[in-house]
Amino acid sequence: MPRARAPAAAVAPFELLAPAxxxxxxxxxxxxxxxxxxxxxxxxxxxxxxxxGRTDPTRVVSLRRLPWRTLAWSDGALTIGSxxxxxxxxxxxxxxxxxxGLWEAVHAVGSVALRHRATLGGNLGRSAPASDLVPMLLALxxxxxxxxxxxxxxxxxxxxxxxxxxxxxxxxxLIRGVRLPESRPSAYRWQRVRPANDISQVAVxxxxxxxxxxxxxxxxxxxxxxxxxxEVEAALGTGPPSAAALxxxxxxxxxxxxxxxxxxxxxxxxxxLAGTLFERAVRAAEAAPGGPA
Amino acid sequence: xxxxxxRLTVNxxxxxxxxxxxxxxxxxxxxxxxxxxxxxxxxxxxxCGACTVLIDRxxxxxxxxxxxxxxxxxxxTIESAGEPTLERARxxxxxxxxxxxxxxxxxxxxxxxxLLAERGASVTEEELLDGLQGNLCRCTGYAAIVRAVRGAxxxxx
Lengths: 293, 157
Description:
The structure holds two protein chains of two kinds.
Chain A: E1 15-17, H1 22-30, E2 37-40, H2 46-51, E3 59-62, E4 71-74, E5 77-81, H3 86-90, H4 95-98, H5 100-107, H6 112-115, H7 120-126, H8 133-139, E6 143-148, E7 151-156, H9 157-160, E8 161-163, E9 166-167, E10 174-180, E11 186-191, E12 202-209, E13 214-220, E14 227-228, H10 230-235, H11 243-256, H12 267-287
Parallel strand pairs in A: 1-3, 2-3
Antiparallel strand pairs in A: 4-5, 5-10, 6-7, 6-10, 8-9, 11-12, 12-13, 13-14
Helix pairs in contact in A: 11-12
Chain B: E1 6-10, E2 13-17, H1 26-33, E3 52-55, E4 58-61, E5 74-76, H2 84-96, H3 105-119, H4 125-131, H5 142-154
Parallel strand pairs in B: 1-5
Antiparallel strand pairs in B: 1-2, 3-4, 3-5
Helix pairs in contact in B: 2-3, 2-5
């Protein structure tokens, strides 16, 4: 027999549980060691955190057997289960036509092999400032469906996301899915060094709501968290913006963001990116089927 | 606490592996438990694609996959013989001479095989190249790799 394992690959042991039902999963979290119990969806963030020593769980609760690998359309509204791999979201035959920005945002996450494991629920639970999904979902007015010991509840994504690794998730609560109220002509534009390996320096999500006849704009990649920008949305008006209105809205957007220099980009470059990506995202959403005319 | 053995089919051969700890990565199960060193460890952070294997014919990064998470699954590695899309990808890499040091090659070949299996005969060159963005060649020998990808697509049945 070959050697058992490479010494360099050793990580601290943990107990891996794979409960078969949501109730069992919640019980596994409740009875786990406080502060040392972690939830595993696709694992593409959690296992990196474990390897880097950012977390050191002794119990890991896998969601792989839960019945949440789902995607359903109903009158233009979309519900996505939290444990559906992102590649399956991307491959839904209706997504690119009805929510083109969401298709672009999902497609922007990592590589194909990563998206075969990574999930929407995991991305929201991690709540990274440069998440590709959070800004687009903010611009689509997503609601997060949660289930815990006290039952189920629904929270607007804008309230759910607080900062990096900080969410509104309560003790022993799980993300069950996300609901998007309507199909929206939309677009997601980002800039990064290498597409599959880096996270965005700046990313802009733009969506047009046919029902409310208004724009929704969100920006990611600018810490501390992805944000909606209501003043910028109002500056775009209630239809296709003129060139002057778009430029004025871009100026406002750049002024409203807490743009700073970090190891990914300088402040000056980020300002340039934010304005440019914003204008491109708005024009692409406008040109999408059903866009404002 | 006794743990049930981990059941995995690897390149068509069934395995029942006793005492696989919960934290063990599929990459280590393949390389160190089964002695199959064709699947490479590059970055171990999900960035380089050298550890790409197929689970039930879809590509995953074996460094970021717990072995128990694919319990009961069918794993295809570069050592596989006879799996049609893998044979096609391998033949295309050989024909194009698409390797320099060769370390990234198993990941590229398996990832390409996964895309061919997933997308079928209608796959475009753009889809294939876009789908290989997560595989890095540090020799930067991409020109021959792109030729191999073209060859694999044209060899579609």
